[in-house]
Amino acid sequence: MALLRKINRILLVLLVLMVCLLLRSTLLRASTRPRLSENRKSPKNSGQVSLEHAAEAHDVVPVVICASEERMGASMATINSIISNTDASVFFYVVTLRDAVKLTRRYIEKTKLKGIRYKIVEFNPMVLVGKVKPDSSRPDLLHPLNFVRFYLPLLDILHKRVIYLDDDIIVQGDIRDLFDIKLKPGHAAAFATDCDLPSTHEMVRSIGMQTTYMGFLDYRKQEVKDLGINPSDCSFNPGVFVADLNEWKKQKITKELEKWMEENFRQNIYSSAMAGGVATPPMLIVFHDKYTILDPVWHVRHLGWSPDVHYPENFLQGAHLLHWNGPFKPWNYPAVHLDRWEKWFIPDPSGRFSLERPDHDS
């Protein structure tokens, strides 16, 4: 009998040890799993404010913008144009990678932007492993921050409705008007379609820009055919949109976007050469016929597709938002309508970001 009790005690000890080992293994897996973002602590004198406090204010316009180390000055020009053209209380979620957190904070705190309300959100690029393959045609389009828009509800963002903007943008209108657009029931986002601005059709044709799904998806692939999307349907540019994050989560949109990223990783159903980037096609697929249409003056685009083709000045004057999508960025040279971008540029206090302009003295 004593021997039996001894055996039972030994078995109990072994059972406890096994449970402890299982708990330790679970905790280790959780700690090493890639996190989408980190809410990094900021210095006490930082202009950043708590997310909870910002989310409590109902009159705030939340704007999400990415700030890469290579294009930091572009993001700051976008922010400057927004705050200079509105009386609204704007809260900026500035998303960047770990190596650029200090540079981002310094650019804001050491310039005229030091009074803005903002939060730096660090994006973890490890979530993209197995979803994005190298492509040499335009490597800039494969930057991890290009995919932040896919993960908005999973970032450290407390607002339920946000505006997302690319960094090659200047806002000339009141950002409050864009934020106040009414989304249709069941729609998680609002975009401007590529067929909605007749005054730009001639320019778009002259530079060979695509305006339909045929220009973004490989309709030779069965996976694309099975979607049942008419190749002549109008496409849209996901560089500017208003998002309802509750509806986004309800429809599991991030999961759907990741599904098509993984499908392309395996099957190559689109490419950056064909689609002008690999971030647009998944959005086109997932949001097909399920988005509200923005007023076209809130996304006048294609300014970066040619160094020679210009919009009429009177047309640009009435535009609320200008987008230099394409390879010819306004901080580089050559590019078009440089004056409309450069008026919002703020010199980098670290000296890392500088404008590329022709040397008139040579």
TrEMBL record:
Molecular-function annotations in GO: UDP-glycosyltransferase activity
Protein name in the entry: Glycosyltransferase 8 domain containing 2
Key words of the record: Glycosyltransferase, Transferase
Family under the similarity heading: Belongs to the glycosyltransferase 8 family.
UniProt keyword Transferase present: yes
Coiled-coil ranges (or none): none
Signal peptide annotation: none
InterPro entries named among the record's database cross-references: Glyco_trans_8 (IPR002495), Glycosyltrans_8_dom-fam (IPR050748), Nucleotide-diphossugar_trans (IPR029044)
GO cellular component annotations of the record: Golgi apparatus
